[in-house]
Structure formats: structure tokens, C-alpha cells
Amino acid sequence: xxxxxxxxxxxxxxxxxxxxxxxxxxxxxxxxxxxxxxxxxxxxxxxxxxxxxxxxxxxxxxxxxxxxxxxxxxxxxxxxxxxxxxxxxxxxxxxxxxxxxxxxxxxxxxxxxxxxxxxxxxxxxxxxxxxxxxxxxxxxxxxxxxxxxxxxxxxxxxxxxxxxxxxxxxxxxxxxxxxxxxxxxxxxxxxxxxxxxxxxxxxxxxxxxxxxxxxxxxxxxxxxxxxxxxxxxxxxxxxxxxxxxxxxxxxxxxxxxxxxxxxxxxxxxxxxxxxxxxxxxxxxxxxxxxxxxxxxxxxxxxxxxxxxxxxxxxxxxxxxxxxxxxxxxxxxxxxxxxxxxxxxxxxxx
Length: 349
Hints:
two-stranded antiparallel ribbon; two-stranded antiparallel sheet; about 10% strand
């Protein structure tokens, strides 16, 4: 069956429309009785589940992922030569409107406050959220629906903030540099624009999305953390070193000598399962793994397989998460300051 129609830019041509009919017939034949299947349009990117009728409409409106020539997610069998292409197909970045993307983020963070139903959880009983969470949800929703300036249809306030912060992180922009650029952008826009004036105010808007971090004071000599039952102590129990810095007048200030930044693990794992874009990836090792002699995922390794044999009950549920641990120290300022070092500890799925 020829798949050349997928690359046809004219989605109203007979070749393209006939190709859609061939795909829908193929999906019907290989998924008998299914009411919803993965949608391979450029917007859904094989991560969202739609009715077969809606998929036909999506493919006309958005087009099919151009690299999805082997319909392995809809029942087509992979051979060894083509199986390595499957990973690349799944990782194609969809063309998504930024405002829709931001709304998807909000729905992922507050799935029970949203009126939209996640297709993969349609049988679940909705769980209410408390008033504080709902207040955060309403603030984010307000910023997501508020125009960046009157008459602006391309960007809402939240969309502009998310886009700018994404590029700040991607290109490793300092806070000072970001503040300067933000000031320039704000002067370029109409005077009644709603763009935050600096990084601090931008962070306040994004706080409602969660995934923040905790600051925990630590002993200067790394003996202990001033945490939980030791949270009120002013000196280290091991070396008696002061928790806070001393001023030139030998007076203790409330500035800690050393701080550890802790990024809580549990909400980050929960977020991976809240998002429709990542929930399926978290189960890939069980549901979509190709069992051959090609090493393309840790699940193909002998260590993973030995773990499954040792803990069969844990391995039986594909939602259980295996975590890796990595750490190393580095001196962020090189030879300019040998006294400062950073020791991040990464836990990753």
C-alpha cells in the first residue's frame, strides 16, 4: 500500500482523501470493536485517543505526521529493519498552537478542575480539589484567557510567559539578561499590555503550575540539614558551627551559611502520569517495547530483565517506576572561584 499521499501538501486532493479512507479502513480492520484509537494527525501526534470518525476530520484539518509511514501503533507489524524507525516516529514534535498548548498544561496540572475529559481516564470518578488549588487554577485560567494586549489574538499573558521562559532556559539566559529583554519587549508593545515587568513577577504567575522547590538550610561543613525535627536549631549538632552567617560586628544574621535546594520527587512523578503526552511514554517499556536483539531502551538490557525476574509483582504493573541515581560535583566559575562548588543529585525515571 503506497503511503506517498501522507507527504501531499494538498489535503483536499483525491489522492490525500483516498489515503485517509485507506488508513481508516486499515485501523478498523486491525482494531475491531475499538471505539477510540490513537490519532496520527500532527496535532495529536499519536498521543491522544479519538473516535475513528474524528480522526478522519483531524487528518484533513491538520495533516498526518509525515514520518508515520509504518502504522505500527495501529496494528501494522514491524520488521527488524524498520523497527528502529518506530522510536523516531513517536518522537516527532507536533505543530500545536501555543495557546492550546498552554491550556493543555493547565489541564494536566489540574485534571479534576478541567471540564475536558481525558480519554484514557473516562471511567474514573472525578476527585474534588481544595479551595487553594482551585484558586490557583482560576488565576492561571484568567492569565490563559487574557490577551497580552487589547486585540492580540496570537498570545495570551500565560502563553507569552511560557514561551519566554522556555527560551530563557533553552539558551541559558541569566535573570539579569532576561529582565533587560523583558523591559525592551514591554516598551515595544502597546502601553496597555499585561506582560510582567521582570523575572520575579513572571515566576509569581508560573508558581501556580507547581513543581517548585524547597530551600533547606545545611551545616557549613555538610554535617546535617536543619530540617524536620532540627528545623529550629541555630547550631550544628555535630560540629557546633553556626547555622547563619556572622556580620563584621560579630552579630548573627538570618542569612544561612549553606542552602540545599530540594525538588520534591513525588509531584514530579505524578505530573508524568497527569500529562497525556508523557503518561503513555511511562508505560512504553511494557506496552510498546520491541523484543529483539537491538538495544534501544534500558528495558532491553540484562539488568532490567534480571530485576523483573527478581521482583515479578513489581514488574507486573507497567505503571511502576524504576529510578536511576546520578551525581557529580562541578565548579561553575572555573578557576575564578575554587571555593564554590555545586553537587546536584539527579533521580530520573
